[in-house]
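Sanity check

After download, print the first record. It should look like this:
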Amino acid sequence: MSPAEDALLLLRLAERHLGSLRGTLDPATLADEDWGFLAQQTVEKLLKALLVLHGQEPPRSHSLQRLLQELADYGDTPAVALLLLELDDFPVLARYDADPTPLPGGRFRLLELLEALHAEVRQRLY
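Expected structure tokens:
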């Protein structure tokens, strides 16, 4: 497969996560910990899609900061909102802490930012 085709596979995974996030905007439907995990995974997959588009094998890392640094090494600086970057450690905190893990912002705002990043990546791929 070409890098663009591989990147499209990651984009489709991110779109699946976005669909789940859209359907669970009510906190009574899905815990913040699970919603935030999916949100972080969405950002991660979108950034990895960009790396693949550059012909790179994405690292086996969940660090959004690391992915952004690798993209910067190729002169690529996607518009990732700071609020989304606050999700970087969210999966670890939510998975291993029994206390509630609050989202860094409201679900509607986070989804809006995720949709914007998705649109940017999608535009590059099509």
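If your output differs, re-run the checksum step. Summary of this record's structure: Residues 69 and 82 are 14 Å apart (CA to CA).
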